[in-house]
Amino acid sequence: MLYLVVCVKYIYRHFFQGIRIAFLPFETKIRAILLTISNFKIAKYVINATYIGDGILTTHNIDLLKDNKFSDAFLESVRDLPEHLPVRDILWRSHIFSWAYNRAKNLNTKDTRECADFVELGVWYGVLVKAALSMDIKHSKESIFYLSDPWGRKSDIDKIEKSAKYSIDIFEVVRLRFQQYDNVKLIRGLVPDSLQEIPAKKVAFLSIDMNGSKPERYALEFFWPKIISGGIIYLDDYGDFPELRKEVDEFLFDKSETLLYFPTGQALIIKN
User: What does the domain layout of the chain look like in residue ranges?
Assistant: First the structure.
């Protein structure tokens, strides 16, 4: 018993420090400790881990995630959210999203005649987009960021895959979270119906996070002709749902573009 206690204390001291403890839910810490104790191979990685979250553990350098501007923006994005929400260990995902957003934003400097817009389908509380915008508040006058989601509207709930998780009406909460950004427009509704309400003619960045294979395929078909050369599609759920992967792979089958996949489950497509 004493040995077990010593192991737990050792693992906790050497692993749950600094940036790692700031973003990990309590349940995640306990699971990691138990796995470490039961598996020596895992223990070697965990003891030397630099980051754990979003389904991955790594021993590699994570200085990018410790950058004050980035980490402060992420903390600001989750600061007022309910503690039980599983959004505080997605720091790596936020890095991917913010990188894609900034790369797409820079495309607008090449053609000032008409700025391409930004679109996110499946927003929920908007953790990733708020973190990206928190680092880039001056972007508000350049182009529009359309955020589309039912946000728990009762008439839409029964039509949503995995609806129980999204059954609470949070529209007013989200509206307040983005009220400081003049360029953010909220469009409440379900894909594919809500697609017609997004007036963007050119799109530099498209984020798709609807946890549903058919809506995400509709979105790809609808926006593909509008995405400018070099524009980025961010797929949040590619690694999680087999049917969704099938739809995305079929969509890309006759195209020259290829998909960049991350161990956190996300994927990017950059249009030629």
Answer: 2-61, 88-270
CATH topology of domain 88-270: Rossmann fold (3.40.50)
CA pair distance 93, 106, nearest whole angstrom: 20
pLDDT digits (tens, 9 = 90+) for 151-189: 987 666 666 655 556 778 999 999 999 999 989 999 999
**pTM score, whole prediction:** 0.82
SS (H, E, C) the chain: CHHHHHHHHHHHHHHCCHHHHHHCCHHHHHHHHHHHHHCHHHHHHHHCCCEEECCEEECCCCHHHHCHHHHHHHHHHHCCCCCCCCCCCCHHHHHHHHHHHHHHHHHHHHCCCCCCEEEEECCCCCHHHHHHHHCCHHHHHCCCEEEEECCCCHHHHCCCCCHHHHCCCCHHHHHHHCCCCCCEEEEECCCCHHHHHCCCCCEEEEEECCCCHHHHHHHHHHHHHHEEEEEEEEECCCCCCHHHHHHHHHHHCCCCCCEEECCCCCEEEECC
Residue that has been written with the tokens 């936020």 in this structure: 94
Structure-block tokens of residue 64: 């990018």
Selection from 133, 252, 202 nearest residue 235 by Cα: 252
